[in-house]
Every structure is written in C-alpha cells, then in structure tokens.
Known about the structure:
Number of helices: 23
Amino acid sequence: MLANYECDLHGHTNRSDGNDSPVEYIRHAVHRGVKILAITDHDIVPPEMIELGGGKRQEITAYAKGIGVELLRGIEISCETYIDDVHLKCPHCGKEMTRAKEVIDCWFDSGSMPFAQWHYPFENEDMFKNNFPAGFISEAVDQTRGWFYTLMAIGTALFNKSPFENCIVLGHVLDEHGQKMSKSKKNGVDPMVLLDSVGADATRWHFYTCSSPWLPTRLGIKNVQETQRGFLSTLWNVYSFYVLYAEIDQFNPLQYASFKTENIMDKWIISKLNTLVKEVDDKLAHYDITSAALQIEGFTDELSNWYVRRNRERFWSENLTDDKIGAYVTLYKVLTTLIKVAAPFVPFMTDEIYQNLVVGLDKNAPESVHLCLWPEVDENAINKELEKEMDLAYKIVKLGRSARNSANIKNRQPLSEMLISIDNLPQYYEDIVKEELNVKKVELGAEMSKYVDFEIKPNLPVLGKEYGKLIPQIRTKLAEMNQMDLATKVKNGKSEYIEIGDTQIELTADNLLVTMQGKEGFAFSGEGEIGVILETTITPELRKEGYVREVLSKVQNMRKDKGFEVLDNINLYVAGSEELEAVIKENEELIKHDTLAKKVVYHEERDNYTTTNINGNNLDIDIEKV
Length: 626
C-alpha cells in the first residue's frame, strides 16, 4: 500500500495510485526530488521485489543507494495505523509532510468540469456564464452514479441549479444475441469489420432506430444489414428511380423551378414532406432522436411504396407532358429536401445524392448537403385533410394486402369484390384502392359479422392468475356477448366489464385472446375500427386476367435479368401450355405494349427458353433485343 502525502504548510503533495512496484516508486521519488522509501518486507512478495532478491530489505536498500536515493526510513506499510506514523520532509520548504486524511472521490474532477474548464472563478467569468448550464450531455447508463451524479451534486451545491438542461442516457451495447460483449466469450464486434461490411450510415441508423437510446442495443453485422435493407436501400432505390428516368428524358428540374402541379398525389406527398420537416425539427429540438429517425423512415417507405408506386406510369409516358413534368418536379423536390432532413443521421449517402442531384446541376449551390440550412416549412402546402384521406386509403390497401396474404392469393390475381367497414371514402381514393388491390368492385359500410367468424377466449396466463376459479363462468359470459362488438371494442384499446356474483371483471386486449377469420370464400383483415373483406372466389374470366398479369411480370423480370435498358424493344418467344398460349394470343396487343415487344412468336425451336410456372402451368419464355 502506498500513501498520499501532503505538506501542512505549503500543500505540496506527492501521490502514488497504489499500484506502483517498489522500483517504480523509488524512480517516481527520484523524479520528484522526494527522498522516500516506504516499502519493506511483506508477507506477500510482489514480482518486482523478487527480482531484487526475494524482497529482502537490504537488497532494496542496496538498489536505492546504487541509484543515489537516500532512504529516510524503512517501514512496513499495511494499513492506516502504520502509515499515519510516517512523516516525510517536504523537498520544497523543509516542513514535515503527513498523510492527507480526507481524500475526495476522483469523480469530483469530472463533476467540476462545467466551471473548471474555464478556470472559473479565477478568470473567464463571462465565458462561464455564457456556457452554463450546458444544453445537452450524454453518457452511458453506468454514469448515473458517476458523472451524472457529481455534475448534479456539485452544480446544485455551488450554483443552485442543474449544470445541464438535457441528458440522453445511453444503454449498453450487446452482441446480436443480447449477451454482454466480453473478451472471454469472444463475442465482440470489430468496428472496422462492421464499417467495411455495411458502412457507417447503416451502423448509425441501426443505433438510432433499433431501440430508445437508454435501452441496451444488440449489435452485429446481421442486425445492421437488416437496417441497411430497410431505410437506406429504400432511399437509394427512390433516388435511382428518379435518376434513371431523368437521364432518359434529359430532364433538368432547374428549368421548371416555378412549375405548379395540380396532381392530388403530388400535393399529398408535398404536404407530408412539409409535415416531416416541421415535426422532425421539433423532435430534434427536444432530443427525441429515435422518434425523429423513425418518422423519416416511415416517410421514405410511403414515398417508395405509395407515391412512386402509384405514379410510375407518369414517368413511363413517352411525351414530356405537364403531368410528367409535375411528377419529375415533385419527386426532385422531395428527394432534395429529404436528404437535408436525413443528413444529420446518415451523412455519407445523403451527401452523395446531393452531389449528383444538386451540385451536379447548380454550380452556385453549397458544396455539401452539410453546409445547407435546414429546410423551411411551407405551411400553405400542408393539407391535413388530404393527408388524413390518403393515409386512410393507404391503410385500407395495406389491410387488403394482408387479407390476400392470409388467403395465399397474389396481388396480380384479380378478385371480384372488396367490402370495407367504413361508410365514406371519396371516389378518387376508392379508385386507388381498386387499382392497388386489383379488385373489380368496392362496397362501403359492409357488416363484418356476415363474413367473419369471431372467437374470443380468456387469456389464461393473465385472467387465470387473478380469477382462476371464475374462468368457467367467464367463458360462459363471453359466449353470451356479441362477439363482433366485443372484439372491435377491445381491439380498439377499450375495455368491457362483466360481473360474476359480487366480482366486477375488466376485459381488455391484454386478458382476452381474439381471433377473427373470414368465413368460407372470404379473406379478412382489420385494424382498429377498419375491417376489410375480400371475396376469394376466382371465376374463369378472373383467372385469365391473372395469367396475363403473371406473364407481364415474368417478361419484365427477364428484361431486368438480361440487362436490357428501359426503352429497349424486344421480340417475345413463348411455348408450352396451350391454355396460357391462348390467353397470350387473346391479349397480345396489351402484352406487346407493356413489354415493348415488336412481335410475339409461338412454338419456335430455341435453345434459350426459360421455363416458368404460372399458377400451376409451365410456360417457356425467351426474349431478344431488337
């Protein structure tokens, strides 16, 4: 044990951290000009003393003398009882030095940082006052009893206020299985391998979105790759889509800076964009990083899977009409604004997009997206009613897709009818729903109970704990109730109460198991107060339409696989199923138009056919560029 010493007159202190070897301690003493040796024989001999001859006093003394160190006194040090008897001579003033009896926690230094960094109160008073309290601090959760505590304790003791206004506590980083990283388990993630594999942007986005900052975060290459395939890939795909068609048309958006679009989809996405800028700015101002990132991700998903999906044909138009210009101008504005909002989160991809879309066209633009100002919000462009209606249509479409999946029916297969529980949907959005879900007819205000079987049972692990003996009676009560009303109520987060004897029982989504399934010939999906039903009966006419859509899809995918350009014309060769050939002949003009085929050739002998299965029928397909 090595002690701390102080001179009671001049305050000269010579300290050791308690981990020095005897030899190191002597060297420190020489360097500081302090003539001291406070180590002698001990029951447990450290390696350094063994090297000097087994830890014997005379050998240590000989070593000290050999390097010119004067030993004032040798004494065994094992506890404060002994060290308090050690008194040293101060090399500066000659006074006696004694052990400092009160040693403050070293975290006092970090807690003093807000004023100590400015050497306040000795100088820099204005600098200190202009920077105190700090606007924001961040550290890991283990600093709750460390830095966070000492900052707060010292700040309030000296200045009667918290030294920070906002604090983000960070949870610990775990491996991809949720285990603490450690050398013994060899489950740590090499950051350089991670960055080389998936990149800095994907790693950053993973930390922003996988959980709230204060919760533990699982980190592994697979976890980050999933993040990469989500937001980042979607953003890049939308950017690539715009560039692809803008290059074909040699479209320069700067020439149409004042163009005003009247398309409803354009107005909707611009409204959503301004809402995004406004709300992300507010969330960042309140240090709500995760919610801000998730909102950016949600907007990008809607941009890709709703706006671009719904407007692809506008970009495919051969002529540069006002409608096509509106689509170009809108998507350009959305992309160039979105990357400014996302730039603080994913700095590298956003700047690469900016360099191509902005700097490449406008030589007067700031040279980096990170030198741009935060986008201004156009309040006049925000239309909450339009957003509400479009969001409802999008929600219905997502429910319809879910119903199709539950019935294992592809979206390319047309269906005859869709029934929706809501009573009102403007015609424009009704047409969108029909087109997106590939249904012939939409009926509003449908009574779900006619098409859906409801089953409601007690959630035994929850209800059984509290009302174990009453479970049989609870089952009886549930069976007597209107199943649809009860299911809808609890699914919407509301409660229903029943009474058994003198006991009142609250029924919620947590203590009930609610199953809703379409009756024979129907597929159901619902969320909240909205329910949708798809009639799943497929007539011969509907089946033929489905065949046509499948053929179109197969040919378009083959064009991509062969690396054909968007505007390349082809010859289409088919052979195999007589039923499919008949359908192709019946719809040949449509297929030629949509695939840019000059001609369709049947039954020609070829070596490069690709056999594909279309709803149980094999069809040989080949294409060639002409």
